[in-house]
Specification:
By secondary structure, the protein is mainly beta. It has strands at 2-4, 9-11, 23-26, 35-45, 64-70, 84-88, 92-95, 98-101, 111-117, 127-132, 135-136, 141-142, 153-159, 161-165, 181-182.
Length: 191
């Protein structure tokens, strides 16, 4: 995949048949306590042509984003069933070996924000939440027991899209509170 360091844009280069692969990235610093949020914006859908004579249909959905958190032992590609928790652009939550529909689809031009709550004093401790364009789209979802107490790393996986790290952009959403911290430059990998 290609990375534009200055703008924080990630995109997949798509030679023939590469549109079937999923790319991924994970931060290099884990989070252990507190509340953290990171945001990504889908800035482009790619619709590469199918190879001539293809016998099998392309994977569905054709354009896919997964955003969440993973342990250091997890694969870079979400979801790693035992070591990650994430939402996808179809509105599904992947937690452990479970997949369930928790929200509506989101897509091109929208900003997805994932909030990780590791604040032991909070009534929603050890949960993950999804916001789209600043609005909550599902209730806080519990972390899988296998991830509780482990450092968790922000992670994304995507297919046939370009996305931008929107965490450093000016925030205008509804869910921002002073005690929530964005995953800052020191806590993100260089996308």
């Amino acid at each position: 995949y290609e990375i534009a360091e200055v703008t924080g844009v990630q995109t997949c280069a798509l030679p023939i048949c590469m549109q079937y692969l999923v790319a991924g990235a994970r931060a290099s610093v884990g989070l252990k306590s507190g509340r953290y949020m990171f945001e990504v914006k889908i800035i482009e859908y790619k619709n590469p042509a199918e190879p001539a004579g293809a016998k099998a249909p392309s994977p569905k959905p054709r354009n896919l984003l997964r955003v969440g958190f993973a342990s250091n032992e997890a694969s870079v590609i979400l979801p790693d069933l035992a070591e990650s928790v994430c939402f996808d652009s179809e509105g599904n939550l992947y937690a452990g070996k479970e997949r369930k529909k928790v929200a509506q689809k989101f897509g091109h031009g929208q900003v997805a924000a994932v909030v990780l709550n590791l604040d032991a004093a909070s009534p929603n401790a050890n949960t993950i939440s999804l916001f789209v364009n600043g609005s909550r789209v599902c209730e806080p979802q519990p972390l899988p027991p296998s991830l509780v107490g482990k450092p968790l790393y922000p992670a994304v996986a995507y297919r046939n899209i370009s996305l931008q790290d929107a965490t450093q952009a000016p925030w205008q959403g509804k869910m921002r509170r002073s005690e929530e911290r964005r995953v800052g430059k020191e806590c993100r990998s260089r996308w």
